[in-house]
Design goal:
Layout (H helix, E strand, L loop, with lengths): L13 H13 L3 H14 L2 H11 L16 H12 L3 H11 L2 H10 L11 H13 L3 H14 L2 H11 L9 H12 L3 H11 L2 H9 L18 E4 L3 H8 L2 E6 L4 E8 L2 E6 L10 H8 L5 E11 L2 E2 L2 H5 L9 H6 L2 E11 L2 E2 L5 H10 L6 E4 L1 E5 H14 L4 E5 L10 E9 L4 E10 L11 E7 L6 E7 L5 H13 L1 E4 L3 E4 L4 E5 L2 E4 L7 E4 L2 E5 L11 H14 L4 E2 L4
Parallel strand pairs: 1-12, 7-9
Antiparallel strand pairs: 2-10, 2-11, 3-4, 3-5, 5-6, 5-7, 7-8, 9-22, 11-12, 13-14, 13-17, 13-18, 14-15, 16-17, 18-21, 19-20
Helix pairs in contact: 1-2, 1-9, 2-10, 3-12, 4-8, 5-6, 6-9, 7-8, 10-11, 10-12, 11-12, 13-18
Bound molecules: adenosine monophosphate (AMP).
């Protein structure tokens, strides 16, 4: 690839990456996307290969690297104003046209004349990102990012913005990047997928593939594996059809997913999005120190009081609190409920059957506040139904159904873990705001904010946002109507007259400070556009409160406290 200015090290440039990215975006053929990316990766300099593969996967830093760029939307807009000289109105108009940070950046910079740009290599970009992540204060970060974008051509800047916002939007799902790595280096696609699954890192997998050493891929201590996920099923019969007659049933706990690594004197807790959350739960990390083996566990952190699992909102007061004080820890004690073990000492267990992993988990005799998920081994759909009815009676969201012979597949929503959920009531709400959609939904107001009525008044209180569930034709119709009833246009968000009534389905109601109502819905989705209902007929805040408190009052979840 290109020679670096000044020395004869070979480098791959960001401009080359952008060209490859644009070519990939242009074709809708998956095969062609894979071919183009494979061609690019095969010719990328080895020192930049891991970065390039990661960038095409939408990541910036390696797995297990806890740095982040910490550049939010507002900071990025400020940088964009500095570098492009565009005013608020021009930035808003560009947003409306593109709904994409990369395209907005590219367009605004292409309008500036006589810019003094300088080629950026992938290596340079990596260094710039590292410096930005290492900046101590926001002002320093903004200055560093401004300097980087000032150097960049509009095309380079477009990709820098895409990477910063972690949205490449060139139609590359991670599976395609894995395929491209396989094609580039003549490896088996399944071997590349497995390496990504184990190391969590496309970059590392690309390097191993290039070196012909994919078999060496293994989980590493203190690099969190992605969580295994569950596939939803409609009923017990479907579960049995997929899993067979022998099914393992656990409660579906409602806390936060957490992977626990304990090795020697070190313990770390990782959230589902792979962030290190150790400092928030000292009682869990302390207990893990008392385990007799090194372990990697999968489980959930739950608020737990008087022998009962508390609802999610109780746990919320603990979230984000680093080094909680004694008062908070007493008010909201937590437990860690483990349902899986991925490594014990240096033995990797993920390929072993769940039956064996559970036995190894039970053998750990975990000390309080560590506990085990309550497991029942059932046979046939009727028994699952009974367990499901029990869970519903205890106001739980549902059950997890697992195949006892299955392996642990990190990051995969496989068919060996199924979830069976309680269908909750729906709420009729009114739309009070809307945002322009992204990707396929670009150019339509597909994301709506909605509200319920405050009892006995005309006031509305927002309770959530949703963007799925309507047909394309309905979205187009709704966009036209939303434009018509706009009260204020804030660029990417607009306030609208409360005229559109929707029926919203959801998984749970929670207390929340995010919305004016004091509640939030979990996984809200639009069930129906209620053309037949008037705004005066929507649901009220007291109905929401009733739903939330019924769940809080009556919910019981079972955990097994083996070592307590
Ligand atoms: P969902 O978030 O609806 O896709 O459901 C999957 C989530 O359920 C997982 O990410 C876990 O956080 C959670 N979960 C609760 N109980 C269990 C369990 N017994 N086994 C596995 N996952 C569970």
């Amino acid at each position: 690839m290109a020679a670096a200015g000044g020395d004869d090290r070979r480098v791959t440039t960001l401009a080359e990456l952008a060209r490859a990215g644009d070519a990939i975006a242009k074709t809708s053929s998956k095969l062609e996307k894979v071919r183009l990316l494979a061609q690019f990766l095969a010719t990328t300099e080895e020192a930049e290969l891991a970065q390039a593969a990661r960038y095409f996967g939408g990541g910036v830093f390696p797995a297990g690297d806890e740095r982040t760029l910490q550049v939010g939307g507002a900071a990025f807009s400020a940088v964009l104003r500095n570098v492009s000289g565009a005013d608020e109105a021009a930035i808003r108009a560009a947003w409306r046209r593109h709904s994409d940070a990369g395209d907005v950046t590219g367009e605004l910079l292409s309008r500036v004349e006589d810019r003094d740009t300088e080629p950026i290599s992938i290596r340079d970009l990596g260094q710039a990102f590292a410096t930005i992540a290492g900046a101590r204060v926001a002002r320093e970060r903004t200055a560093l990012l401004t300097a980087l974008l000032e150097r960049a051509s509009p095309d380079e800047a477009r990709y820098i913005a895409k990477l910063i916002t972690a949205e490449l939007r060139i139609g590359l799902r991670e599976g395609l990047v894995e395929e491209a790595v396989a094609v580039a280096f003549g490896a088996e696609p399944a071997a590349v997928s497995r390496a990504v699954m184990l190391t969590g890192d496309l970059g590392e997998a690309a390097l191993l593939a290039k070196a012909g050493r994919l078999d060496d891929a293994a989980p590493r201590w203190f690099v969190p594996l992605r969580s295994m996920l569950a596939t939803p099923v409609a009923d017990a019969a479907e579960a049995v059809a997929r899993l067979g007659e022998d099914v393992w049933v656990e409660d579906k706990y409602d806390g936060i997913r957490c992977q626990l690594h304990r090795r020697g004197a070190d313990v770390a807790l990782y959230s589902r999005d792979l962030k290190n959350i150790s400092a928030q739960f000292p009682e869990v990390t302390d207990a893990a120190m008392h385990l007799h083996s090194d372990v990697m566990l999968d489980g959930e952190i739950l608020a737990f009081h008087d022998g009962r699992v508390m609802p999610f909102h109780a746990l919320q007061t603990r979230l984000g609190r680093i080094a909680p004080d004694a008062a908070v820890m007493t008010a909201v004690p937590v437990i860690y409920v483990a349902w899986d073990v991925l490594m014990v000492d240096d033995e990797v267990l993920i390929d072993h059957p769940l039956r064996e992993r559970r036995a190894r988990l039970e053998a750990l005799a975990v000390p309080h506040p560590l506990a085990l998920a309550h497991l029942e081994r059932v046979r046939g759909a009727a028994e699952i139904d009974r367990r499901f009815d029990d869970a519903r009676a205890r106001f739980n969201e549902g059950l997890l159904l697992k195949q006892p012979e299955s392996q642990y597949t990190p990051g995969r929503r496989g068919l060996n873990w199924l979830k069976l959920k309680r269908p909750l009531d729906t709420l009729d709400v009114v739309v009070v705001g809307a945002e322009w959609g992204h990707g396929k939904r670009r150019g339509v107001l597909s994301d709506v904010t909605f509200a319920v009525r405050v009892d006995g008044t005309d006031q509305l209180a927002t309770i959530g946002k949703a963007y799925t569930g309507l047909t394309d034709a309905e979205i187009a119709e709704m966009t036209a109507l939303l434009l018509d009833i706009t009260v204020a246009d804030h660029g990417h968000y607009r306030t609208v007259e409360p005229r559109i009534v929707l029926e919203i389905a959801f998984d749970a109601v929670q207390f929340s400070v995010r919305h004016k109502s004091g509640f939030a819905l979990r996984f809200p989705r639009i069930a129906r556009w209620r053309h037949d209902k008037a705004t005066s007929e929507i649901d009220t805040l007291s109905r929401v409160r009733d739903l939330a408190t019924a769940i809080e009052r009556d919910r019981v979840q079972l955990v097994d406290q083996t070592g307590a």
